[in-house]
Amino acid sequence: GKRSLRQRVVEEMKHYYNGFHLLWIDTKVAARMVWRLLHGQVLTRRERRRLLRTCADLFRLVPFLVFVIVPFMEFLLPVFLKLFPEMLPSTFETESKKEEKQRKKLNAKLELAKFLRETIAEMAKRNKADTG
Q1: Tag placement on the chain: N or C end, fewer CB within 10 Å?
Q2: Which Pfam families does this one have (predicted)?
Q3: Rounded-to-integer distance, Cα 46 and Cα 91, Å
């Protein structure tokens, strides 16, 4: 059903609190990884990706904080998110947005696989014609 304004505001506040909390945890983990890097240890591929994602999130946080700090600018946030969908740090994404991203990636991979399959079939036909 339809939620009241108070419920929607409370849910948004919880969403942003959880997002900042997750970003704080990611930042602490990334700081430990940087410490390990500075002391000559090698990061795994997974750790390197997490470190890069956290750094990108921290850089995305700067324009996001402008919306939080400047009064009444949070009303423009949906407009800017529509124009720049990658502006929000990854810890603030909702499940539906994550699923939508995964769906788009899967469709792109399927299109690429279809193209490659058609290309290989065409090459096989040419080779068969050349040898035949």
Answers
A1: N
A2: LETM1_RBD
A3: 17
